[in-house]
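Justification of resources, computational component.

The compute hours requested in this renewal are based largely on the per-chain cost of generating structure records like the one below. Each record pairs the submitted sequence with a full structure-token output. That output is archived, and it is also reused by downstream analysis tasks.
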Amino acid sequence: MKQLRQKLDKMLFEGQGRQLLWLSVISLIVLFLLLLIGWIFEGMTWQSIVALFMDPGNFDSPDGHDIFRIATALLGAFFFSTLLISVFTNIFENISSSYKKGESVYTFKNHILIIGSAQPLKSMLCAIRDNQELQKKDILVMTASNVEALRSRMEIQLADPAFFDRISFFHRERNSLKYLKEACAEKASIIYVIGEDNESAHDALNIHCLNLLEELCGNEGSVIPCYLIMEKHSTLHLFNYMKSVKSTRLNVEVINESDYAVEQLLKESDFLPAFSADDERRLHLVIAGNSIVSRSFASVAAQICHYPNFKGAATRTRISLIGYNEEERDMFLASYRNLFELSHYRYVTAEGTEETAPSSDIGDFLDIEWEFVNEPLISSFVNTLLERWAADPREVMVLAMCYGDDETNTFMTLHLPKVVYDSNTNIAVHQTDSSEMMELANTIGMFGKVFIFGNAHPGEDLLFLNRSSKGKRVNRVYDSEYGNPPAKDEEEAWRRLSYAHKQSSIASANSIPLKLRCFNIRPTKEDIRNLSDKQLDSLSEVEHRRWMATQLLMGYSAATQEERRDRSHFKELKNEKFIHLDIAPYEELPEQEKKDTLIMNNIPYIMTGIKEA
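The structure output for this chain reads:
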């Protein structure tokens, strides 16, 4: 009896429509038995029995025995009135509940698939809404979080019922091939793997998801852009050492969200000052806060902040990180060991300063130096430093507020020494949720010049659709000249690249706007042709110094001065030991290895995509 009851309960409450099938089968069996009994024992016609079974209101018919007719009428009322209404109600309730919880499975094609519901989701949805090319595409958000709460929050935040109707939610884990197939991943037009908030294994799960997507999508069919979001810089370092790219129709771009936010600020705005070759000042970038964002700001700035006046005035860009204790400094140094082997850096406390110089075996030729200050930004010690730096005529100080939350960044921005504001210092403030406070501060005009970056900044390309476009052209220039054989187009050349070389090409493109400002030129063939040989050589050297910083950050190491004299083992050292002989002073490079001029001559094409005659 217990097993029968369990089966009956399951049948009635499964919510998949099977209870309706079961009810139909049982009803037909009961009706067949009644037809058999009524015909044999009561002499009733089948029409009378069916009429009584379907409608108990026919009870007053004189055919058959009253007890049989009562039983038939009651059974009909039970099956077609009580159970049928209950079953239909249950079906619709379960369908509604399944939809609300994101458990319903639908068929999608040519849709935008967002895997995860982490913090960038709202901004990404807004960007999709505003993108004309994506207007007609359905959006599927596949998440392991509570769909009912997420749906309610997104509906309120987006405040756009027509757009919200395009969004479907699917409550599934991303570490299952079955679930990715149910999400029709292989039929998507774009895939974003963003993961969930507060996951201890966020990057590992995203990588596992990527492997499943590659297996599901295969290598036949149209190319699917796939954007993989990583949180930890250590994960990106692993990607740097990947030598080959799998054969897949997924066109994968690996992105660190905070790195990308900094990239957008430094390449798209005039936050960074521009120094000409005869300017004797230097850039002093002060980064406050020990967070993922501060480390991103430091590493991205190290790939962009390179100036033509280094050679003449010996002015190194200084990057000061505020609020780093000795252990945190050592972790930062370990993360970029090869860079700091060649760098000047110092550790500053209220008690004194400890300085370190580059290895003499390799040489002293980088144009960036570092400073770690083991005191908080609001301390009197750091306030005194800020006042001195802001008043120093030999440098231009800019500040970046990179604490872990919006409120702290806002507070620190509004409580700096007055001399910082009076000097009209550029201050970059990281904001993830809302930018209203910082926009108001800019309107008031008492707090320097505030630049907002992060997800709250509306100007960002939050869908990453244009992130690599100029980097692809940088790579295309190299490939056309040195490819063996050259690829047929930009996309094919790009798909051949490892992650590290993609990042290098993107960094090269990101640095061009600052170069144009420093040399006071436009991205036109005319302006490039009008450069003197000395100017073009200087522009190329700036690019080489930028390239060296990028290679060192990505894990390449420099050879000693003695090793650099013998270039016969160039490929072996580069490919097997990750030692690059071109990480050397510009004047030391053989003429045939000075590839930076090739990039500089093609700036118009890289920036506009137009090949001028």
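The radius of gyration is 33 Å. The CA atoms of residues 114 and 192 lie 5 Å apart.
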